[in-house]
């Protein structure tokens, strides 16, 4: 994904790659996931989608989701993992593991 | 990103979209981030990159990173947010916020 | 809290304190929080309390909550922070910050 | 632990218990874990303990660890789980599972 290279360039241009060991990047990812979780924490579960569907709250959700993606790609960069390629393979494996005809309508098991 | 649509189709074909409210998906994302964190927890920080650069450990890292991406995109689907578009805008905003000439070599501030 | 000392002894007796730098312990904590999150991810929000109130599921919840506490106390040990003392001060500060008469029935703000 | 009852009283007095279903509390916990992770993200692993041993940074670490404990106890309250009792049993089980003589000096396995 070209965007993963954009994230690499963004860090490299700022000389931040020196801080980007995997443990640090996972902690940074956790920080962003925490901000994402806080958005939804006190919203009733059945109102969450609507509450974040427009306006400044939608903007906040977009930003927090983006931050998670950016650090996930930075982690991929630090490990030389092409994240979209890996995820494409993982989704294909999940298709094999959970055939449509066998799981229809059943709560997904932990993957 | 076409892959976000693939993730949508994967869930829809299995009738799992009914479970995909934002709070549930953030919890699922946290579960996958937890598995990713566990990979690195006891590895010395300066050996983490090398330790996960090849073999079965690299495979594990690829899988856990993939799971995080897949649930992040599922969350995007539940909120009708195009994750790659949003992240592209966020990275552009970060470029403006942290101009190369002003931050070179300084530890990145929390974004 | 004497239990924080028990956690310290548990690690020390096994010579595991060598692995217990703060970054590693936060990652371990995140791993346990991930397991806790997975318990609840697909349960409807209004059934979560009842679903985990008895039987093997209650046992699972008890174990995952316990693991989070144990790693949190181990983190306290690594930083020589008495966690119960610190939390007692924090709760007192929160009582001052959110006086009962001013917040009654209003959704708690992010602290 | 009397402090768990203090946390219960704190929420009840403010009429916040209505928001404290397990999924919401896990998300709130994740938010606090995220803030804790951010403290350590860019600090070199071998400097983290010293960096947070005194001054305002120690204060920050104390506060973030406290917030995690408070939400963990609130989760225990929502499920009627006595967190200290449960963790005491869990640590006893871990002592049996990892006898001192068998694990001395070996990296702890995921529990």
Short précis:
The structure is a homotetramer of 111-residue chains. By secondary structure, chain A is mainly α. Chain A has six helices and no strands.
Question: Describe it for me?
Answer:
The structure is a homotetramer of 111-residue chains. With 111 residues, chain A is mainly α. Chain A has a single domain (2-98), classed as Helix Hairpins, CATH 1.10.287. In chain A, 70% of the residues lie in helices and 0% in strands. Chain A is built from 6 helices and no strands. Chain A has helices at residues 2-13, 22-40, 48-51, 55-78, 83-97, 100-103. In chain A, α1 packs across α4 (55-78) and α2 packs antiparallel against α4 (55-78). The two termini of chain A are 24 Å apart. The mean pLDDT of chain A is 94. The interface between A and D is medium-sized, with 17 and 17 residues. Chains A, B, C, D: Pfam families: MazG-like (PF12643). Chains A, B, C, D: Keywords: Hydrolase.
Total of helices of chain A: 6
Low-confidence stretches of chain A: none
Which two chains have the most extensive interface, and how many residues on each? Answer: C-D, 65 and 66 residues
End-to-end Cα distance of chain A, whole Å, is: 24 Å
| Sheet having the most strands of chain A | none
* Total count of strands of chain A: 0
Q: Could you spell the SSE succession of chain A in H and E letters?
A: HHHHHH
Q: Report the β-strand fraction of chain A as a percent range.
A: under 5%
**CA-based gyration radius of chain A:** 17 Å
Assembly category: homotetramer
| Structural class by secondary-structure content of chain A | mainly alpha
């Amino acid at each position: 994904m070209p965007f993963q290279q954009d994230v690499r360039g963004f860090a490299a241009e700022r000389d931040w790659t020196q801080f980007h060991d995997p443990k640090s990047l996972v902690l940074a990812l956790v920080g962003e996931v925490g901000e994402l979780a806080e958005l939804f924490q006190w919203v009733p579960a059945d109102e969450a989608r609507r509450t974040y569907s427009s306006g400044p709250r939608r903007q906040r959700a977009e930003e927090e989701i983006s931050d998670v993606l950016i650090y996930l790609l930075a982690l991929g960069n630090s490990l030389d993992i092409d994240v979209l390629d890996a995820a494409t393979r993982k989704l294909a494996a999940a298709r094999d593991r959970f055939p449509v005809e066998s799981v229809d309508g059943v709560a997904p098991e932990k993957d």
